[in-house]
Structures are given as structure tokens and as C-alpha cells.
TrEMBL record:
It comes from the Eukaryota. This is Alpha/beta-hydrolase. Residues 122-342 form the AB hydrolase-1 domain. InterPro entries: AB_hydrolase_1, AB_hydrolase_fold. It comes from Polyplosphaeria fusca.
Length: 396
């Protein structure tokens, strides 16, 4: 506790203010109150009560593992080549209605020095791997803190831990999927537009910013409800499904049962919650040398959150869903060497599918961040990506 208070008082900028889960210690990333608040913002934290009701295929009950051996056996069969002579391992069965009441941990920051943009609220959704610290990093915030950067440009930011992550409620790990995340996102955005959880700020415009799994979630949400927002920024995203190596990612994520990998931090989660075991698994999927520092990767690994197999299996499902009803500003921003959505090289494969899926966006901007892989927020040129985002919002 003393360490947490010290960190908050001095606005932590070094690795001394987080704990590495590799040593079995607990983490401050699962608390409602962040370790770090941007000094240029006025911030508040909330537990947002939500009720969601949605339909999705149910995870096949006969394949629910109860130990690490069962998980690995299932993964081996699931990722076998299509013609391999192994028993069929269909992960999902018939569609089912899911309902639940949960609490979502969220933060809202608005600029201390308003410039007229403060009523333009960015709602930020993280992806698989990080929690809401993805947007509000205590590690070298002058380089890796999007919220702080956006505040410097006058924008307000609402960001949250997805259901099952950080300080948010922990639902059944075999239930959580992209459909769950979409239901949560729609509910939160509507609350923000109603003026809830934004203090004295009443949003005049709402932009949805998202990363990776969050971007595919946002893409599907606005394809169904284009009135949900006034602009979207999809990072770590592609509409080209052929660039996503599904079996390769299932293997390179090296899924392990999270409550076994790190019982101190993830002991509150059931066996459906997974995590990769080492920083090198993170680097394989999210970083590309030389556009990152080892210390940055170590921090990012220390802040990882759990994911579920259903999230991993459904994250790219909306890629080829048309967003033809969307007729507002859309920015697609992806790293040049993104391993997850482009199998290592994005140039030449994301532009045309984006235009096909967003034929009526006004405007559609497709940008590639040089040298970066999937983790744009923690690449050495992260502030360059932040500038692309805020310049896009300024212009539109």
C-alpha cells in the first residue's frame, strides 16, 4: 500500500512503480484507482453498473477443461490442419441467450486547461492482453500515455477495463466473447452520451477509439448501430481476414490457465481465463525489433490481463462484415509489421478491404505506422501514432 501511495504522489515514470507478476506478487492494475493520473487532467474513477442481454453460440460444455492437461489437449486438436485425422473439436454449439448484471471499472479524464475540444469525448476500448492501463500507462507516460497526450490536445477520454479484466467484474470465462464485449461497449457509450460518468462535461461528440480485439468489437457495433458514435478510430485492425493466421495465433499466444500461471494476481478467475506465460510470448505477437525497448516489453508484460479462448476465437469474426451504413469519419491505424492482423506485413493488404467494408465513410483514412507491430501504444514511435489520431479528430 505504501508503495502504491508513493507512486500516485510522484506520478510514476519508471518501472519502480509497478510489480512484475513473474515474481508472484500482486498487482495494482486490478484496483479501481490507477497508479498514475496524467498531471494535465482532472480524472475520476467509477464502477459503472451494467445489465447486458445478448445472444451467441455457447462454448461446447464437453470441451471445458478443468486442468492444464485438458487445455493443452484441446488446443492441440483445435489447431490441427483441417484434414488431420483427429476427433472433431467444435468449440461452439447452438446459440444461447446470455444475461448478466456486472460492474465495469472506468476512468474519465478531462483537460485542466480546456481549449474547446473538451466536450469531444473519446471512449477507449482496449484489446486482448492489456487492461485500461493500455491508454493510461504509468511507465514513461511522456512516451506511452495516450490519455495524457489526448488531454494535451484538449480532448476528454473515457476508458475502461473490459468485462473480465482489471477491476471489472469477472463473468464466466467460458462465456466471454466478442459478442459480450460488444454488448458492454454499446451500453457504456450510451451512458456517456447521456452525460453519465463525465462530470460537468456533457459530450457534444463521441469518438470510439479501440485497439485490436476492441477494434473488431467497435467495427461490429457501429455496423449494427451507426448512430452509436460520431467518429471511429480502429487501431491494430484489418478487414482482410486472409492476413490473420488463426491457427498460428492460437499457438503463438501459448494459452495457459491464468489462475495456475499467476494465482496471486489471477486467483479470482475461473479456468476459462487464460494468459501467456512469458514476456517472449508477448513480444512474438505484439512487438517487432528494433521498434521497442526491452524495458517497455517487461512493463507491458507486468500489466497483462487475462483473456478467454472464446475471445481469441471470435475476435476476427467481424472482419468481413460490411460497415456500409457508416457515413462518418473512420480512421484505420495499423502497425507496418503487425503480426496479429497482417501476419507480419501490412503494406498492400489492408487498404483495399478497408475501402470495400467502409464504402460510405466520410472520410476513410487508412494509415500505417512505420516499423511498429501490433502494440502501437508501446512502440518507440507511439507518440507519432497518437498524433495521427488527434490530427484526424482535429480535421474531422
Amino acid at each position: 500500500m505504501a508503495m502504491a501511495i508513493t507512486c500516485m504522489l510522484r506520478h510514476a515514470v519508471t518501472t519502480s512503480c509497478y510489480e512484475n507478476p513473474a515474481n508472484g506478487s500482486t498487482s495494482y492494475f486490478k484496483t479501481l484507482t490507477p497508479v498514475y493520473y496524467p498531471p494535465n487532467g482532472d480524472c475520476s474513477d467509477f464502477y459503472v453498473p451494467i445489465s447486458i442481454d445478448y445472444e451467441q453460440p455457447e462454448f461446447n460444455p464437453k470441451f471445458k477443461w478443468t486442468d492444464s492437461f485438458g487445455l493443452q489437449s484441446f488446443m492441440a486438436a483445435l489447431t490441427a490442419r483441417a484434414s488431420a485425422p483427429v476427433p472433431e473439436q467444435a468449440p461452439f454449439v447452438n446459440a444461447k441467450q446470455f444475461k448478466g448484471d456486472y460492474e465495469i471499472a472506468a476512468s474519465f479524464c478531462t483537460p485542466r486547461k480546456p481549449n474547446g475540444n473538451e466536450k469531444k469525448v473519446i471512449v477507449a476500448t482496449h484489446g486482448i492482453g492489456p487492461g485500461r492501463t493500455h491508454w493510461n500507462s504509468p511507465f514513461k507516460p511522456e512516451e506511452f500515455n495516450f490519455v495524457q497526450y489526448a488531454l494535451s490536445k484538449g480532448y476528454s477520454v473515457f476508458f475502461y477495463d473490459r468485462l473480465g479484466c482489471g477491476a471489472s467484474s469477472k463473468a464466466d470465462g467460458f462465456e466471454l466473447s466478442l459478442e459480450t464485449a460488444k454488448a458492454v461497449l454499446k451500453t457504456l457509450v450510451k451512458s456517456v452520451k447521456e452525460g453519465k460518468y463525465t462530470g460537468k462535461i456533457k459530450a457534444e461528440k463521441v469518438a470510439l477509439l479501440s485497439f485490436s480485439f476492441g477494434s473488431f468489437t467497435t467495427h461490429k457495433a457501429i455496423s449494427e448501430e451507426p448512430d452509436l458514435a460520431d467518429a471511429i478510430i480502429l487501431t491494430g485492425f484489418s478487414n482482410n481476414i486472409t492476413g490473420i493466421n488463426g491457427n498460428g495465433l492460437l499457438r503463438s499466444f501459448v494459452p495457459r490457465i491464468a489462475n495456475i500461471e499467476n494465482s496471486a494476481r489471477f486467483g479470482d478467475r475461473d479456468d476459462g481465463y487464460l494468459a501467456w506465460p512469458s514476456v517472449f510470448d508477448l513480444i512474438m505477437n505484439y512487438f517487432k525489433a528494433p521498434a521497442f525497448a526491452p524495458s517497455t516489453a517487461l512493463f507491458t508484460q507486468s500489466a497483462i490481463e487475462t483473456f478467454t479462448l472464446s475471445e481469441l476465437l471470435t475476435f476476427a469474426a467481424p472482419a468481413n462484415i460490411s460497415a456500409e451504413k457508416w457515413d462518418k469519419p473512420a480512421l484505420h491505424l495499423t502497425g507496418e509489421l503487425d503480426y496479429i492482423v497482417c501476419d507480419g506485413q501490412c503494406k498492400g493488404i489492408i487498404e483495399t478491404p478497408a475501402k470495400e467494408m467502409y464504402p460510405n465513410a466520410k472520410p476513410l483514412q487508412v494509415s500505417i505506422q512505420p516499423a511498429a507491430s501490433h502494440h502501437l501504444n508501446f512502440a518507440t514511435n507511439a507518440t507519432g501514432a497518437y498524433g495521427v489520431i488527434t490530427d484526424f479528430l482535429d480535421a474531422n
